[in-house]
Every structure is written in C-alpha cells, then in structure tokens.
Amino acid sequence: MTDKVKELVSECLQARDMAYCPYSGFPVGAALLTADGAIITGCNVENASYGLTVCAERTAVQRAVVEGHTRFTAIAVTCDIKDRFVGPCGACRQVLMEFGSDLTVYLTKPDGTYKETSLSELLPLAFSSAHLAKN
C-alpha cells in the first residue's frame, strides 16, 4: 500500500465518523484523490425528507468541484459493515462517471483493509456525456 493510498483510506475512515445519519444509523465516508494529489472528503448527510439525503461520495465530489477540482484518480469509500466490502450506490457511481471512467475505487472496511477495483468495473456500459452528442 502506497503512502497516498494509506492516507486516502485513513481520510475516508475519519470522514465516516463525521456522518450525519440519525435516521438510518448507517455512516458512510469517502475520500477523493484529485489529479494534483489533493484529498477531498465527504460523509453522508441525511434529511428527514429522505430523498434529500446526500451520499458521502457525492458530498466529496461537490466539495472538490467547489475547490476547483474536476479531475480525479481514486476514491476510497467506507461504512461500518465489518464482514464484507461495500461499494457506492448506483447514483454515486453515475456521478463519479461524470468525471471519467478510469477512477480507481478502494472499497474499505472499518479496520482499514480494502479491495481495489475500478469505476468502470462497478458501472459497466455506463451512460456518459458521449451519449448526448447529436448524430
């Protein structure tokens, strides 16, 4: 594990601890690695109107964009499930795809162990901006 991956995993675990999830009790953290090496974190933020809840991955993407980042190389995501690796929801996969399919994804357990995969593996045959081109 490289130092940057260790840092990314550590940051996603810390972000999970900041989750606001009074309804589901399901904290999620994400840490997004930008092309220039910055790490931007996010956690899930729930709302009593459930549809307004924002996932950790989307919070990280939105924070990154506000800070001027739109090129990403990796994301680490975690929740508090200890016995298996959990990936981003479908909506988050689609939002991440907006910024490129070559993203490395680290599915991280609470103890810091992780499984490396890719966004294109998690979202095959994805819809993208290329599909919006006129014929």
TrEMBL record:
SUPFAM superfamilies (alphabetical): Cytidine deaminase-like
UniProt binding sites for substrate: 44-50
GO CC, any one term: cytosol
Gene Ontology molecular-function annotations: cytidine deaminase activity; identical protein binding; zinc ion binding
InterPro entries: APOBEC/CMP_deaminase_Zn-bd, CMP_dCMP_dom, Cyt/Deoxycyt_deaminase, Cyt_deam_tetra, Cytidine_deaminase-like
Matching Pfam families: dCMP_cyt_deam_1 (PF00383)
Entry keywords, A to Z: Hydrolase, Metal-binding, Zinc
EC number: 3.5.4.5
Record-annotated CMP/dCMP-type deaminase domain positions: 3-130
Keyword Metal-binding: yes
Active site (UniProt): 57 (proton donor)
Binding-site residues, Zn(2+): 55, 89, 92
Cofactor: Zn(2+)
Reactions mediated catalytically: 2'-deoxycytidine + H2O + H(+) = 2'-deoxyuridine + NH4(+); cytidine + H2O + H(+) = uridine + NH4(+)
Any single GO BP term: nucleobase-containing small molecule metabolic process
Top-level EC class: hydrolase
Domain of life: Eukaryota
Protein family membership: Belongs to the cytidine and deoxycytidylate deaminase family.
Record function comment: This enzyme scavenges exogenous and endogenous cytidine and 2'-deoxycytidine for UMP synthesis.
Protein name per its UniProtKB record: Cytidine deaminase
UniProt organism field: Gasterosteus aculeatus aculeatus
